[in-house]
Amino acid sequence: MKLYFLVLTLLVPLLFPLKTKAQTIGKNPDPTVMVSPILEDFHTLENWETLLFPKIPRHSTYEIVDLPEGKALELRSDHSASAKVYRKSFDPYLLPRLSWRWKIYDFPHRKDPQRKEGDDYPVRIYVLFTYDPANPGSAGRFKYELAKLLYGIYPPHSSLNFVWANHRAPRDRYPNPYTDRAIMIVRDRGQEAVGQWREHEIDIIEEYRKSFGEDPPRKATLAVMADTDNTATRSLAWIDYIHVEPSSKDLLKD
User: Fold this and answer.
1) 194 or 114: which carries more pLDDT confidence?
2) Residue 13: its pLDDT value, please?
3) What is the arithmetic mean of pLDDT over 190-205?
4) Which CA distances in Å does 60 have to 1, 50, 66, 67, 234?
5) The CATH number of the domain covering residues in 6-15+37-253
6) DSSP at 118
7) 107, 136, 185, 248: which sits with the fewest CB atoms below 10 Å from its CB?
8) Percentage of the chain surpassing pLDDT 90?
9) Longest CA–CA separation in the chain, Å
10) How far apart are CA 210 and CA 119, in angstroms?
């Protein structure tokens, strides 16, 4: 079974809900957090690192390819799972607008994606929110420190997962079957648009509040994934671009 960051699904359900303090929009004091736009057009993968999952021997592949429309990231999965994680973090309050373009050729369609045995998608775009050890909330510091000791990293605080789901996904928003700190948000569904580019734009802060009923942390990163290990199927998809930018309102102010 794929567990994103393994510690996310093993430990996070025991830790939350952790109440996040209200966030103040302004300059982010963390020098490791990007405040300039992310304009990922997939000419290379130098900004991404591979994430492999324990006990999943077959890995999905990620390759820059030339399509008639230009370069794109190709995501292939064959009874497999792995992910690509963006190497840098950003401030979702300063860069709340997430936009992307994707299309699929084939995807897992046999089972209910709200159940563990159906938790496969041809393409996922994650926004992963970073756990802050200086502000752990009312509980959970010990378990997070244990996770870091065991796996070398803290598990994410929470995540939004934008997906192209099969026709058996009855809702547009639902918790991941492994943890309610990862919310699945369906942006396309089924085979009606197979082979067609689909463009989307969302507000990260608004989507987080809808999903969790609270404000998100001020540090986040991106990940992409294709997986078919649970359904023992194949999938093929492409991502043309992923952009993370200031909101339209902020651009108008400038």
Assistant:
1) 194
2) 33
3) 94
4) 14, 10, 19, 20, 10
5) 2.60.120.260
6) G
7) 248
8) 56
9) 52
10) 22
